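re: ur question from earlier - yeah i can do the single chain one, its not a big deal. heres the input i used so u can compare w yours
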Amino acid sequence: MLEPPDFLSRLLEKGGNEVIGVLLLSAWMWWLIGERFWFLHWRLPALRARMALAWRVERPEQPSVRLRLRAVRCALLDAALTAHFGTIRTLTVVLPLLGLLGTVTGMITTFDLIAAAGSTNPRALSRGIDAALISTIAGLVTALSGMYAGTLLRVRAEKEREHIASLFD
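and the output i got, formated as tokens:
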């Protein structure tokens, strides 16, 4: 079995520049996902408690003012709750496309080898196909894992939205 640094260096060597792009974008995506989980677990409860306390202390008597203030506070909490969701979703779409770009460039390299050397060298052909498949699988694996985590975040955000709405009743 390959050690992680050796595996990573061979993956980068075989996969080409597209794999480097996939790894960089997936690192960014996972940083954003981690930040969102941290926010939901640590920051949101404190923010929710402060908003609920402020609502109890300064709750306006006029119904129209109370409704507008409630809508503003719910919107502020919702914006804080769903920050980076669009970026995470975009990255989960871009990552497999970047892997597909690696597939296309790997196949072009393979066809160039076929044109230059003929189809008599299977080892050279397998190198190009190998690079194409590595970038494809890197893009797909990172995108699927990001989609899973993004779905978990969206489900948690929906539950929190319901809880937030009940704070200002």
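The chain has a mean pLDDT of 85. not sure if urs matches, ping me
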